[in-house]
Design goal:
InterPro entries: Hist_DNA-bd, IHF-like_DNA-bd_dom_sf
CATH class of the largest domain: Few Secondary Structures
Keywords: DNA condensation, DNA-binding
GO biological process, one term: chromosome condensation
CATH topology of the largest domain: HU Protein, Chain A
Organism: Desulfopila aestuarii DSM 18488
Family: Belongs to the bacterial histone-like protein family.
Structural class: alpha+beta
Number of helices: 3
Order of helices and strands: HHEEEEEH
């Protein structure tokens, strides 16, 4: 699903202009990105939580050259789904 699809669904359900909904979605996503950049956790009840985790530095081999490389510390995004979302996904498959 693309951001455009979300804007279309929300604008249809709320009978709002797509341009207004698009601005609102952009504000939400920018706010979330800003919070994650500030190392703050985002929790959306019934959906899940987003947080930033730090990966440890490591040494690995470049598969193309066979040369050893040092990979520095890096931040990654971590998502944990809520219990209700997990149960909904499991019940759909079952």
């Amino acid at each position: 699903m693309l951001k455009k699809d979300i804007v279309n669904i929300v604008s249809d359900q709320l009978s709002m202009q797509k341009q207004d909904v698009s601005v609102a979605v952009d504000i939400i996503l920018d706010t979330m990105a800003g919070a994650l950049q500030d190392d703050r956790r985002i929790e959306l009840r019934g959906y899940g939580s987003f947080s930033v985790r730090q990966r440890k530095p490591r040494c690995t081999k470049n598969p193309r050259t066979g040369k050893m490389m040092d990979i520095p510390v890096r931040n990654t995004l971590h998502f944990t789904m809520s219990k209700s979302l997990k149960e909904a996904l499991i019940s759909e498959k079952g």
